Amino acid sequence: PTGHHQQCSSEKIKSAALSFLPILTWLPSYPIKEYLFGDIVSGLSTGVMQLPQGLAYAMLAAVPPVYGLYASFYPVVLYTFFGTSKHVSIGTFAVISLMIGGVVVREAPDSMFMLQANGTNSSVPSLIDTEARDARRVHLAVALTSLVGINQLLLGLLRFGFVAIYLTEPLVRGFTTAASVHVFVSQLKYLFCVKTRRFSGPLSVVYSLIAVLKDITSTNITALILGLTCIVFLYGVKDVNERFKAKLPLPIPGEIIVIVSTGVSYGMSLFENYQVDIVGTIPSGLLLPAAPDFSVLPNLVTDSIAIAIVGFSMDISLAKIFALKYGYSVDGNQELIALGLCNFIGSFFHTFAVTCSMSRSLVQESTGGKTQIAGFLASLVVLLVVVAIGFIFQPLPQTVLAAIIMVNLVGMFKQMRDIPLLWKTSKLELAIWLVAFVSSVLLGLDYGLLVSIGFAIVTVIYRTQSPKSMILGHIPNTGMYCDVDEYQESIECTGIKIFHLNASIYFANSDLYINTLKQKVRYDVLYLTLKKHTVVRLVLLDVQGNGQVTESQTESDSEETHFLRTLCAVHSIILDFTPVNFIDSVGAKAIKSVIKEYAAVDVHVFIAGCSRTLLDELRTLLFFSGPVTPDIVFPTVHDAVLHCQHRRPRPSSTVV
């Protein structure tokens, strides 16, 4: 026994290690001849694409561009060891970067770093200590990233990977489309090269657009022409790559080609001669690790939760698409742990929060990437630039980075096509999409996400309060029962009502269940209670029955005595519990009460299609007590119908 216990313990330890470090499951059996070449080509292609995106998305995060390169290196290396998807490209992503930028600008606005006030002379511009501002924003972004990582780690360790299901696809697509609007508007000032402050909070996208339009007369024409030229070129390259992806051995690296504008910028001295804003100093080498500034964490808790959930949702949705396509599995909880480690450990190396990028992931997959090795090689390309040749990007115009960002939004803007499709298929999901989009555009991404999730939950409640109900009829010569209103072949069993409602029974809809049941069976009880004498009139009508309806009136000398008498042909009601997944104490009491109520007028109620789990719940709730016994439960509707007919046979029975 001791040896067996030790063996079990060692197997559990091995299983836990393999689960925590997925690289141990695939690297030892890595087929070098089959996979290595594809991973090398894919890694180089993805790394080349990751360089300009890292620089550009750092601008969205309101930190100096070099920090985008750090975020494109450390987290990617960590994901190689801890991630379960073979094809997603981890690193900077526009939506997450924008959410981070909104937080750091809110906590460290330009107004905190003014060196000179305008005073009464509005023509004198205010000077900003950009060095102090950027340092403060870096501290905030790093601390926020650390907290995002902690949240994701905790969710993963507590096995909360299922939380992504609450971010339904229409919600995510509406939210990311709204984020694209924010990103696009935020880049207009770089495209036009105008000086406007960055806004955050509700209506920030409106204020940003107004600020750019107000200052449109100061547009730097040189920067605008360069930016528009890059947009047209990049869009054309993207279109060619999409149209001829089957014929092209590798996608055309349009983003790297436009980086050649760095040489043009340097040769023409665009910054000195034409005042075109450039990337500026990119320090060589890696910074020494340092602990984040945890003193600012209390102000960032809510934002970190939103970023953690959105980041995980983007990662797991794309990871599942690739896993389904290539026939492997991804673990949602391990993905949370992997992202948590990427962000938490990465924050000690001055990175900001990351997730997977759709555009880079598609490149990594289409260029032959087979495993996480491709992502690892892409990170080495970034490392080479950071350590050795980062200085060549210093004269890169910011309008070129804005062009790269804008063109990469095309895919997310195409999600607008969801609107006519959802209008045809599901108007409720269309409402979720539109609420997510409008609220996120107007209220900001943080409040917009909360409103979107709240609305999605309301739609779930609405659906539970609006289930479809029906009376079932028998299909002759079969054991099948269908809705009598939809199927002409279905015939009601004489004297038996079979009630079906597509919902579980719990506190929120137990009254709905009972009221709908009574409405379908047309059971109306009118109590006329007098102080000394009680007159009770009961009218029990058959839904489709065409028998004579009569009334009975009984008087009693008792002060509160109710006499009930059934006056129609219905003798049995069968509750089809096939769609009932669970029932709580309130629902059980409601069903028990209606059984007793019908029994008082000699109408017997039976339950059919009850699952084993549901039966256990009913026993736990002491449902079977008093006049309600397990004998009323039948495995199928057909069994219940046969029992009713055998108990009280009728010559016109339709069931054979």
From TrEMBL:
<dbReference type="InterPro" id="IPR018045">
    <property type="entry name" value="S04_transporter_CS"/>
</dbReference>
<feature type="transmembrane region" description="Helical">
    <location>
        <begin position="88"/>
        <end position="105"/>
    </location>
</feature>
<protein>
    <recommendedName>
        <fullName>STAS domain-containing protein</fullName>
    </recommendedName>
</protein>
<dbReference type="InterPro" id="IPR001902">
    <property type="entry name" value="SLC26A/SulP_fam"/>
</dbReference>
<feature type="transmembrane region" description="Helical">
    <location>
        <begin position="55"/>
        <end position="82"/>
    </location>
</feature>
<keyword id="KW-0472">Membrane</keyword>
<dbReference type="InterPro" id="IPR036513">
    <property type="entry name" value="STAS_dom_sf"/>
</dbReference>
<dbReference type="InterPro" id="IPR011547">
    <property type="entry name" value="SLC26A/SulP_dom"/>
</dbReference>
<feature type="transmembrane region" description="Helical">
    <location>
        <begin position="373"/>
        <end position="393"/>
    </location>
</feature>
<feature type="transmembrane region" description="Helical">
    <location>
        <begin position="248"/>
        <end position="268"/>
    </location>
</feature>
<dbReference type="Pfam" id="PF00916">
    <property type="entry name" value="Sulfate_transp"/>
</dbReference>
<feature type="transmembrane region" description="Helical">
    <location>
        <begin position="431"/>
        <end position="462"/>
    </location>
</feature>
<dbReference type="GO" id="GO:0016020">
    <property type="term" value="C:membrane"/>
</dbReference>
<dbReference type="Pfam" id="PF01740">
    <property type="entry name" value="STAS"/>
</dbReference>
<dbReference type="GO" id="GO:0008271">
    <property type="term" value="F:secondary active sulfate transmembrane transporter activity"/>
</dbReference>
<dbReference type="InterPro" id="IPR002645">
    <property type="entry name" value="STAS_dom"/>
</dbReference>
<keyword id="KW-1133">Transmembrane helix</keyword>
<feature type="transmembrane region" description="Helical">
    <location>
        <begin position="140"/>
        <end position="167"/>
    </location>
</feature>
<keyword id="KW-0812">Transmembrane</keyword>
<feature type="transmembrane region" description="Helical">
    <location>
        <begin position="216"/>
        <end position="236"/>
    </location>
</feature>
<feature type="transmembrane region" description="Helical">
    <location>
        <begin position="336"/>
        <end position="353"/>
    </location>
</feature>
<feature type="transmembrane region" description="Helical">
    <location>
        <begin position="305"/>
        <end position="324"/>
    </location>
</feature>
<feature type="transmembrane region" description="Helical">
    <location>
        <begin position="400"/>
        <end position="416"/>
    </location>
</feature>
<feature type="domain" description="STAS">
    <location>
        <begin position="486"/>
        <end position="644"/>
    </location>
</feature>
